[in-house]
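Weekly structure sync, notes
Attendees: PL (lead), two postdocs, one rotation student
Agenda item 3: pending single-chain targets
PL asked that the sequence for the first pending target be pasted directly into the notes so everyone works from the same version. It is reproduced below exactly as submitted, 274 residues in total.
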Amino acid sequence: MAQWIPCGRFRTIKPPNYEQGCISMQIQLVRHATLLIQVNTKRILLDPMLCTAGEMPPIENSTNDRRNPLVELPISLEELFPVDAVVITHLHRDHFDHTAIKVIPKHTTILCQPADEPKIKELGFHRVSVVDHTVEWEGCRIIRTSGRHGTGEIGERMGVVSGFMFIVESEPRLYIAGDTIYCEEVEQALDTYEPDIVVVNAGAAQFASGSPITMTAQDVISVCRRSKAPHIVAVHMESINHCLETREQLKHLVWDSGYRDRIKIPSDGEVLVF
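Predicted structure, written out during the meeting:
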């Protein structure tokens, strides 16, 4: 079982030094859904939204007009790079923005869902690896999972989204659920792959009308009930104007639910070591 060690904020993951006995898996919440993951000694940047605060307009048809992102990056771009690969769950601008397109070297390995390959290649990236179901990359088995980015007509308009399992021998099994509500596809991934660490996009993102398109606090609790994973990590909060549930709201509901010891709600820049 993985042990979770909070390492505080503003510490960038560096390549491991085995002579000093470095623990292998680390996850740093950069901001929103952007994660820097160290797995099997490799550095993976997930869903990079790297622009400065207020550089993007509000999400259309949202309940407020705050410009995005709402907060600055907690670390510099120089501290983020280099990385060994970039994993993109889908191409919404809060997961792969214009700054990321500009600053990520075009020779970087990009792993993505099949629907996004043509656009990413069109942007000039020439080492794009599609994860249709499973790929082997640098000793890591990466499996694409499905989700639902909302329900009904809104869910249809939001398009195809993916999550990813990262499986390496002798390391915790990591499931990145991606932009999805709690649904049958998430249950299937939890039951099939039995992850040790589950990262969920919370915040209850929603438009002025319709139901949430990412997980609510109650959805996060449903993940806890369904999964045996000892570590549920909730991100995707307080950075985009239509993510309406805050960390504090999630914390209060989670603590009342009895899952306080299993759910981690990291701050921007915080590193979790497993």
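Discussion points:
- The CA atoms of residues 203 and 244 lie 6 Å apart.
- The radius of gyration is 17 Å.
Action: rotation student to compare against the earlier draft before next sync.
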